[in-house]
Amino acid sequence: MFIINLLKNLYNAYRDIILDKKQKRVAFLASLGSGLEYYDFVIYGMLAQFFSTQFFPKTNHLTALIQVFVIFALGYLVRPIGGTIFGMVGDYFGRKTTFLISIILMGSSTFFMGMIPTYQYIGIYASLIFLVLRLIQGISFGAELPSSLTFLAEHSGAKDRGLLIGIMITSVGTGALLGSGFTFVLCKLLGKSNMVNFGWRIPFLLGGMLAIIAYFFRKKTEETPIFLKEKKHEKIAIIKLLRKDFKNVVVTMLIIILPASLIIFGVAFPSFASGIWKYKTTNIYFALVVGEVFSIGLIFLFGWLSDKIGRKKQYTAILILFCAFGYSMFGLLEKHTFFHLILFVIIFKTFIAAMAGNYFAIMTENFITNIRNTGIAFCYNCVFAAAAFIPLLLLYIYKQTHSIKFISVFFVLLSVISLIGMIFIEDRTKKTLT
User: Fold this and answer.
1) φ and ψ at 370, to 5 degrees?
2) Which residues contact 152 (CB under 8 A, 6 or more apart)?
3) Which three-class secondary structure state does DSSP give residue 367?
4) Helix (H, G, I), strand (E, B) or coil at 153
5) Which of 12, 134, 143, 373 has most Cβ atoms within 10 angstroms of its Cβ?
C-alpha cells in the first residue's frame, strides 16, 4: 500500500507541474545553475582522493586529504561574503543580475580547476592557483542557490511555492546524480591510477562547459513581479537584515544546521568510506548513484506535500524521525557489507530529500522582499561555511575514538538544535510573499 500511495502522490505532483507552462519554464531556468552548482560541489568531494596528492608536496595520503578538505572549507568561508554581496546586488538591482554573474563565475572557476598544472610541474604555484579558483568558486556558489531560490519563490503563488521550489531542488539532486554517476563511470573505465593522473580533470572541464551553456539560457529570464512592484529597494540590505530581522536570521540558521551538515558529510563520504572504513571505491559510487536515483523524485514530492499539510508540521516530523533513527542509520556502516552500504546511503539521501522539500521554502517565507535575497544568502552561506569544517571535525573524532557511534551522536545532537529552531518559526505556507 505504501508503494501504491507513493506512486499516486508522485503522479498527482507531476500532474500539478504540467498545468502551468510559464511556471515550468521559470522552474527550469532557476534549476539550471543550481543543478550545476551541486554537480561541481559533489565532484570536488568525490574526486578529492584522486587529486589530493596533485597540488601539494609529496606526503602521506591522509595529510594530503586533510589539506584538500581545508581548501574545501576555505571555499565555504568566502561563501557568506559572496552571497551577502550578491544578495544585496539582487535586492537593489534585481534578481536577474546576480543570476547571470554567478553562473559565469561558477563555470569559469570550475573549468580552470580542471586545467591547473600539478605541483610536480609548477611547485607551490599549483597550490596557490588551486586555492584562488576554489575561493572564486565559493563566492559564486554563495550567490547561485539563494538567487535562484529568491527568483523562483517570487514567481510562484502561495498554493504551489513548495512544489516549484521542490522542482528546483530536485535539480540539485540531479546535479549530484550526474556528478556521482559520471565519477562512477570514469572510475570503472579508467581505473585508479589513470584517475589520479588525469581522469579527475574531466568532470571539472565538463562542469565548466555546461555552466557556460546554462548562461545563454538564463539571459532569457524576466525579473520577478514582486521585485518590480517593490517601491523601496535597499542599497545595503545586510544592515536592515541584522538590525530589524535578527531573530529570523538566528532561527533560519538553526533550522538548516542539520541538513547543511548532512549535505557536507555526504560530499566527503566517499573519502571517509574508502580511506577510513575501507569500502571499495566503485561500490561507494554505485551506492551513491542508487541513493540519488531513489531520492531524486522525493524532493518535489515533499515540496508538494508541504503545500498541502504545512511546512512547519512536516519539517518538524522529519526532524523527530531523524532524532529517533539517526543513530541506528549510521550504525549500518559498521556492518561493512555492500548491502548495508547501499541501505545507509538510501536512508541518508531520503532524509536529505525530505528536509530539502521543506526548509528551502521556509527560508523564502521568512524574509520580506527588499531583504529576501540577502537574508537567504547570508543565513544559508553562513551555516554552510560553518558546516564545511565538519569533515575535518569528524576526521578528528574518528581518529580519537575509532568509532562511528560518536559521529552518529554528533548528527542527532544537530537534529535537536534544528528542532529548537522550529519552535520559533511561524508557518507561512499558505501566505502570499510580502
Assistant:
1) -75, 0
2) 26, 27, 30, 164, 165, 168
3) coil
4) helix
5) 373
Q: Torsions phi, psi of 222, nearest 5?
A: -110, 145
The per-residue pLDDT for range 72-111, each reduced to its tens digit, is: 777 778 888 888 898 898 888 888 788 788 888 888 888 9
Q: Does residue 9 carry a pLDDT above 70?
A: no
DSSP string covering 214-259: HHHHHTT----HHHHH-S---TTHHHHHHHH-HHHHHHHHHHHHHH
For 123-172, what is each residue's pLDDT tens digit? Answer: 878 888 888 888 888 888 888 888 888 888 887 777 888 888 888 888 87
The 8-class DSSP code of residue 332 comes to G
Q: 330 with 408: CB under 8 angstroms?
A: yes
Which grid cell sits at 361? 521554502
Residue 351 pLDDT level (bands cut at 50, 70, 90):
very high
**pLDDT confidence of residue 87:** 87
Q: Which of 214, 30, 28, 208 is nearest to 114 (CA)?
A: 208
Contact 301, 13 (CB under 8 A): yes
Cell numbers given for 59: 606526503
Structural contact between residues 281 and 195, judged by C-beta atoms closer than 8 angstroms: no
User: Is the pLDDT score of 19 beyond 50?
Assistant: no
Distance CA 165, CA 240 (A): 26
Cβ–Cβ under 8 Å, residues 412 and 327:
yes
Ramachandran class of 402: left when φ > 0, alpha when ψ lies in -120 to 50, beta otherwise = left
State how far the Cα of 402 lies from the Cα of 414, in Å rounded to an integer: 21
Kind plus residue range of the DSSP H or E element containing 359: helix 338-365
- pLDDT tens column, 256-282: 999 999 988 887 888 788 877 888 888
pLDDT of 60 above 90: no
Q: Which amino acid is at 150?
A: T
Domains delineated in the chain? 20-227+237-423 (1.20.1250.20)
Q: pTM for the complete prediction?
A: 0.82
Q: Taking each helix axis as running N to C, give the angle between helix 237-244 and helix 79-93, from 0 to 180 degrees, rounded to the nearest 10.
A: 100
Q: What gap in Å lies between CA 145 and CA 99, rounded to an integer?
A: 9
Is the backbone of residue 336 left (phi > 0), alpha (psi -120 to 50) or beta?
left
Q: Which residues of 104-117 are buried (b: 16+ CB within 10 A; e: fewer)?
A: ebbbbbbbbbbebe
Beta carbons of 37 and 149 less than 8 angstroms apart: no
**Does the structure show a pLDDT above 60 at 432?**
yes
Q: How far apart are CA 311 and CA 303, in angstroms?
A: 8
Q: Which of 325, 322, 391 is nearest to 353 (CA)?
A: 322
